[in-house]
From TrEMBL, chains A, B:
The keyword Oxidoreductase applies. Its cofactor is FAD. This is Glycolate oxidase subunit glcD. Residues 48-226 form the FAD-binding PCMH-type domain. The keyword Iron-sulfur does not apply. One of its GO terms (molecular function) is oxidoreductase activity. It comes from Phycicoccus elongatus Lp2. Belongs to the FAD-binding oxidoreductase/transferase type 4 family.
Amino acid sequence: MTDVTDKPGAGLTEADLAALVDEVGAAEVVLDPSAMEAYRWDWSRFPGAGMPCAVVRPRDAGQVQAAVRWAARRGIPIVPRGAGTGLAGGSNAVEGGLTISLDRMAGIEIDPATRTAVVEPGALNAAVKQAAREHGLWYPPDPSSYEICSIGGNIATNAGGLCCVKYGVTTDYVLGLDVVLADGRLITLGGRRIKDVAGLSLIKLFVGSEGTLGIVTKVTLRLVPSPPPAATLVATFPTARAAAEAVVAMGRQLRPSLVEFMDQRAVNITEDHLRMGLDRSAGGLLVVQCDSPGAARTEEIEAVEAICVSAGATEVFATDDHDEGEAFLGARRAFFPACEGRGALLVEDVGVPIPALPDLIDGIAEIARRHDTDIPVVAHAGDGNTHPNLIYDATDPAARERAERAFSEIMELAIGLGGTITGEHGVGRAKVGSLAAQLGPDVMELTRTIKDALDPQGILNPSCAI
Amino acid sequence: MTDVTDKPGAGLTEADLAALVDEVGAAEVVLDPSAMEAYRWDWSRFPGAGMPCAVVRPRDAGQVQAAVRWAARRGIPIVPRGAGTGLAGGSNAVEGGLTISLDRMAGIEIDPATRTAVVEPGALNAAVKQAAREHGLWYPPDPSSYEICSIGGNIATNAGGLCCVKYGVTTDYVLGLDVVLADGRLITLGGRRIKDVAGLSLIKLFVGSEGTLGIVTKVTLRLVPSPPPAATLVATFPTARAAAEAVVAMGRQLRPSLVEFMDQRAVNITEDHLRMGLDRSAGGLLVVQCDSPGAARTEEIEAVEAICVSAGATEVFATDDHDEGEAFLGARRAFFPACEGRGALLVEDVGVPIPALPDLIDGIAEIARRHDTDIPVVAHAGDGNTHPNLIYDATDPAARERAERAFSEIMELAIGLGGTITGEHGVGRAKVGSLAAQLGPDVMELTRTIKDALDPQGILNPSCAI
């Protein structure tokens, strides 16, 4: 784990901070330590967050540029921050660094003619969806936190979600970006055009770069027509392996719009919480939705049902009713609240090729036993992206240490299965030390080459950069 | 237009070439000038192709590495080449440079369990589609040249096609890449996993980089289940503007799988060739397909029909019959053959936001008049991506000059409408001089920074790099 121990802001003078206020604006600079506290951590509460020298809350790109220039001249680290809902410590403050919170830049403009949204980074994902809906349009990417996470953060992590098994992830919807570079220059990439291959794919390079290459100040998003209503199926299986086999078979024939998995431990934790009659003996549970238009969605759900039965499902329930479907999806969504009160939570995010899901889930169970840590698993199974959730007693240092060892071993397991240490949450601080194990030395060097070229001082989100 | 006048290969000795043969393999090195002729040009016949010092036709990544190392040690430019079907001079040889043709590396392996294809760059797009089909799977990207273009070239240009209005472009299907870097190192990016946000989006950076950052030697492609059959509609409109308005309205409500446009001049050239009874008086013609499953496709086509009628269509014909639909699509596909014999052809590839299509088409007609050049327009209208085709008498230097001026002015027009100089063909040699007009100085500098970081000697496809 990375710990930023140097304190680059320590040498700052009163005059430096006065210059920040002067150059950015008094109303946009937070210097009071108690007020800054709210900007130090993301949801992971990953340790190592420092106390910033200041937090800037710009209202426009010009103020972002001014803040970056102020920091660049002094070699001060910069941490861009969206809604702070990250799960990898990616927006945790750096000791003595400048945190730039984009929460006040939250404008949304929908252009129905080009089917685009021009959005500021602080706009919440749910607000973009809502604004699009008013025009009969849809912004698909739907991280589970969509009601409270920001588009800027979604872009920083290339966020996924539940519907991306059919509709793709954030990068698939970004047509344009305004980015403030490490030297304070503002560039505009792309625009309201759907296809554009002029020059390098720079937009795609910034998406998923977790604030280490630049700070996004405006986004042009592609919208699509609202999807038809979905039919929903819930199936329980004797083993996680049987459920995963059903997922593989579905993907070969159908394009479901949602394929969620819960392992036995996740089912039991949810049932403890909801008491809705979930089968506690099930080795795996799937919630599947299909949203093809018209009668086709019923045919698709019937095909999903046949696949589940032939994979050995012990119980299958399908419905074309929206509210009934949402209730079952609610069981999956209730898992995280159900974990509350059980201890501290480390949310993992490993992914594997889909056929390796059973081996991953079995391997996680073995790691849980060996390290005596409770690790229920939920997964965006259609993408092979799992969230093992390490629950431990935060007041017990030995338990914490066991959980952290398990956390590392789960990443090693995923890499060994041809997978990734992060499918959608990002590397952040939590996994920067594990990145080399996945990427290898040459790709790490290439990454460093690009980082150095774009940010020679290394001031942009340094705790998340290799 | 770029003309490479220096001759970096001129200082090469017999010993240098003997070393190439020795290091790569005698069977893989072509030194005979008449044999090399076939590797000098792409389909654009864009002027400026040089005579390479040698052509290498490697059989594996190791031989690509050996060839790159040989060239890197000597500072010799390298031009990677796929099937040579490019339309922007992107694989035209550099005088005295080393052309690396990937045509012998054409392996295809389908893995139905992970729904992926592992493909060598020389494999043809159509061969990948066929191999996937044998497993009930589909590789969607479909450039018009899909029967003869290679996956490596598709990746170099981030190729689009007809179905990308619904199914996306090449970059959306690339899960993994093996790339030989400018110093000969071979890196592996991504793999058989659908979601992966560990590290920078390097795969996406290489896709669309036109051989200026590295040479792809292996690709992992995402496959999807075969789509249902499509219903087809053909509609004629009094004006191009009316047709474009129908396209805008469709996009707001529906997700057609194909939306192709032909202007009046393109309709007439095609009708001259086919004599199938197309309406010569039509200002614009649309061919639309919908491929939602089951009865929904008929409902969608009916909705398309209603939109066309309400946009002022003079004639609309819809069919659910596959062969009949293919016949109408055939009219669109017959346009390029219909141009043959009419003169030399410069194929443009400009794109605009969809509502700007009518202004683009009107503007192109005005440019055609002013420069006395025949410029029929076809378009992937659902994406706002047009192909104005400049037909001129190659034996008349004045006609050629007028066509080239028109070519430049069409790019300026597209940029002025918020568009791009290339939607899917790439920059190549043909447009490298026009790139700055679209991207502006800061983005050009950022592009150069990345190029310099990855290829400090500037040896990778230098005529296509800024």
